[in-house]
Amino acid sequence: MSDITRRDFLKLLQGAGVLLGISVVAAPVAAYFYPSKLIEMPSEPVLVCPESELPVGQAKTVEFGRYPALVINTEDGLKAYSAVCTHFACLVKWNPDSGQIECPCHDGFFKVADGSVIAGPPPKPLLTLATQVVDGQIYVKVGGGA
Ligand code: FES
């Protein structure tokens, strides 16, 4: 068994540092050319819940591909949006008391009718999704406009 000298140990440490530095640069490059297989938005409708479980005034957040969707049963029917705030991507939530969609991160507020910004820093409306009811089951899917 050989003794490791201080010089050898420092060389080993230097090599590990160089490898770490290379990986810090190489990992993002590799991620760029080989993106993950995460599904951004599902191509098929996603089941939300039975109609009976979402009374008027209530909302449900469901997994919808990579990001969740917010489905709200309003007086004017079902509304669905991406639950990702257009400011810094916090998750928005429905406030039944105020009748608004709210982002708790920086006090962003959105209209439930069309997802447009009421107040706060979000630069754009929420991404609108579509809903459909089939055999008493609520589904959310891609579509629905802006
Ligand atoms: S992330 Fe929603 S308001 Fe900033």
For this entry, give a set of tags.
Rieske Iron-sulfur Protein; 2 domains; 146 residues; elongated; alpha+beta; six-stranded antiparallel beta sheet
Detailed description of the structure:
With 146 residues, the chain is α+β, with helices and mostly antiparallel strands. It has two domains: 1-35; 46-141, Rieske [2Fe-2S] iron-sulphur domain (Rieske Iron-sulfur Protein). The protein is 19% helix and 35% strand. The chain is built from one helix and ten strands, in the order αββββββββββ. It has one helix at residues 6-33, and strands at 46-50, 59-64, 67-74, 77-82, 93-95, 100-103, 108-111, 117-119, 128-134, 137-141. A six-stranded antiparallel sheet has the order 1-10-9-4-3-2, with no helix packed on it. The longest helix has 28 residues, at 6-33. The protein is elongated, with a radius of gyration of 24 Å. The protein starts with 5 loop residues before the first helix and ends in a 5-residue tail after the last strand. The model has no long low-confidence stretch (mean pLDDT 92). The structure holds FE2/S2 (inorganic) cluster.
Question: What's the SSE blueprint?
Answer:
Layout: H1 6-33, E1 46-50, E2 59-64, E3 67-74, E4 77-82, E5 93-95, E6 100-103, E7 108-111, E8 117-119, E9 128-134, E10 137-141
Antiparallel strand pairs: 1-10, 2-3, 3-4, 4-9, 5-6, 6-7, 7-8, 9-10
The structure holds FE2/S2 (inorganic) cluster (FES).
Residues 85, 87-88, 90, 103, 105-106, 108, 120-122 line the site of FE2/S2 (inorganic) cluster.
